[in-house]
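User: I've been trying to design a sequence by hand for this structure and keep getting stuck. Would you show me what you'd pick, starting by listing the structure so we're on the same page?

Assistant: Good idea, let's start from the same input. This is the structure you sent:
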């Protein structure tokens, strides 16, 4: 078994450690070749005199560098070492051979003695167990054919078993306490023993005897204060320890929850409680309901309480835990309200005609039922038929597109968790509208003009609206596409008045007809025509395109030229 361990660890050592050192002091031994140092500018060159070989070690220590002696077929280039605590594993990176034998020796600089710790055999990796910490020279020889053919010497410091204990960590759950200790060590044989001192009884108890595990769990005998004590024993027998003062809580309830914060008549309420029971005192538990007169135990299933209230009202619910003798340990009481679901609909439906035949409806609903649902339907009077808009969604609002212009009934029906229903119906006339056009109409009614006309330009939609009437009572006469100023030369925004007019003006090769000025050089005028042949040059509309003027179809430009008097208000906006 030991040989298997050595073989495994040696393989690991060869893979993990680098080889070779320099500038090391060690002792020469007669059982090794004589060493002669010669200095160069770069390093000490080691020359080996193989004529001097002795079987006995020499006590005198001399200072030298790492020694490497080899024959033609056997080479030792380094010694690898793996620190295991009270011992180390040393080896050479050679493939074992039945024809090559190795002997391992060490020189103890403290005792000034040589010792053979592994005699001749074919093992390339061996255990080394020095008697104390300190500096050593480890020396290995290789023999083949009855002669020493290679050797290597290297200085090592052996630290022995070094263990440093950190802090103890301790935590208690609902059924046990866990413990652990942090530590650093080079000792592969380190073991731990855990004990607890009961302050109340003045006694020690063994939690866990010597083991290689630093962590574990513990069930205290009773609540109270304890000293948690851990010892760490190394492979060399040295023991270090740590102590922690800890407290174990009394058995008690930690939580009491229900499946809902308030209940409804004839619906299941599930109750669940949790507790801390480190000392294993709990023998039983139960759930109770108080109706104002009597406490009644509930049904139990999988440790939970089940209750179906049959009447609305204010109740108290309770979770109790008992010891094995039936004595009450702890209890938790909470109030609990049971309701009958209700809804109060707030009058008529709210209607918003948003665009075209699109409508948005909503209903105000006061309710205590978070699961209330709504069904939306409409009745087509022309075809004498009901149609579902949305079948029992949760929301209290809906969008609807009428299938055609005409008269309809729109109805919302609500249903509560107990099946109770209510409904509200409203008559609706669906007519086609343009939302942008309608928005401009509403804006126009907020302005006054010095004439019976008003012009609005929407730069965002590139539309011109023409109105007749007065403030608050404007009638839209026209709603035209236009091309206003592009982003780099936008049309001026604000409130202006119509000024001068003209039949045309030229701009380069283009001619613009029927212009009406409303601010500085900003004009209403026609799209662009070629001034030489009268052909249309640029008739694009519905976009930002001009240098700031508002371009229109030539007939629309002429209508403004002919009909809109000076002093008429012009509003340009986004």
């Amino acid at each position: 078994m030991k040989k298997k361990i050595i073989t495994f660890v040696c393989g690991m050592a060869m893979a993990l450690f680098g080889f070779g050192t320099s500038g090391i002091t060690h002792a020469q031994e007669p059982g090794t070749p004589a060493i002669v140092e010669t200095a160069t500018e770069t390093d000490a060159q080691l020359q080996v005199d193989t004529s001097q070989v002795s079987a006995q070690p020499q006590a005198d220590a001399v200072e030298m560098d790492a020694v490497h002696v080899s024959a033609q077929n056997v080479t030792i280039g380094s010694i690898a070492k793996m620190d295991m605590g009270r011992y180390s594993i040393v080896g050479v990176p050679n493939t074992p051979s039945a024809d090559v034998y190795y002997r391992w020796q060490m020189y103890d600089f403290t005792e000034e003695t040589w010792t053979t710790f592994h005699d001749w055999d074919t093992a390339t990796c061996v255990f080394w167990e020095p008697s104390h910490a300190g500096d050593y020279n480890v020396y290995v020889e290789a023999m083949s054919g009855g002669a020493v053919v290679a050797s290597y010497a290297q200085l090592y410091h052996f630290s022995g078993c070094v263990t440093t204990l950190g802090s103890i960590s301790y935590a208690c759950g609902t059924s046990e306490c866990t413990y652990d200790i942090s530590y650093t060590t080079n000792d592969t044989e380190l073991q731990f023993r855990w004990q607890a001192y009961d302050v109340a009884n003045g006694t020690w108890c063994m939690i866990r005897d010597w083991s290689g595990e630093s962590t574990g769990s513990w069930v205290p005998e009773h609540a109270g204060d304890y000293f948690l004590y851990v010892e760490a024993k190394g492979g060399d027998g040295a023991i270090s320890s740590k102590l922690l003062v800890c407290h174990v809580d009394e058995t008690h309830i930690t939580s009491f929850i229900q499946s809902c914060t308030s209940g409804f008549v004839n619906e299941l309420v599930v109750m669940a409680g949790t507790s801390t029971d480190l000392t294993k005192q709990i023998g039983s538990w139960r759930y109770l309901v108080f109706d104002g007169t009597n406490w009644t135990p509930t049904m139990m299933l999988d440790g939970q309480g089940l209750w179906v209230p049959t009447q609305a009202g204010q109740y108290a619910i309770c979770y109790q835990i008992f010891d094995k003798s039936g004595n009450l340990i702890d209890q938790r009481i909470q109030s609990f309200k049971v309701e009958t679901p209700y809804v109060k609909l707030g009058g008529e439906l709210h209607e918003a005609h948003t665009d075209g035949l699109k409508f948005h409806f909503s209903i105000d609903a006061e309710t205590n039922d978070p699961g209330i649902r709504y069904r939306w339907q409409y009745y087509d009077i022309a075809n004498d038929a009901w149609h579902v808009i949305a079948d029992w969604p949760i929301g209290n609002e809906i969008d609807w597109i009428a299938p055609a212009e005409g008269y309809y009934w729109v109805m919302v029906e609500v249903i509560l968790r107990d099946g109770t229903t209510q409904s509200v119906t409203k008559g609706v006339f669906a007519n086609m509208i343009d939302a942008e056009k309608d928005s401009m109409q509403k804006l126009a009614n907020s302005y006054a003009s010095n004439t019976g006309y008003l012009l609005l330009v929407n730069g965002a939609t590139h539309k011109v609206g023409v109105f007749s009437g007065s403030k608050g009572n404007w009638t839209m006469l026209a709603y035209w596409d236009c091309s206003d100023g592009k982003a780099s030369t936008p049309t001026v925004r604000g409130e202006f008045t119509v000024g001068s007019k003209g039949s045309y003006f030229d701009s380069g090769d283009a001619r613009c007809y029927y212009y009406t000025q409303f601010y500085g050089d900003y004009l209403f005028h026609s799209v662009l025509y070629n001034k030489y042949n009268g052909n249309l040059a640029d008739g694009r509309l519905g976009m930002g395109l001009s240098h700031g003027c508002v371009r229109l179809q030539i007939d629309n430009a002429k209508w403004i030229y002919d009909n809109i008097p000076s002093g008429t208000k012009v509003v340009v906006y986004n």
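That's my pick for every position. To get oriented when you compare it with your attempt: Residues 2-16 form the longest helix (15 residues). Residues 272 and 304 are 5 Å apart (CA to CA).
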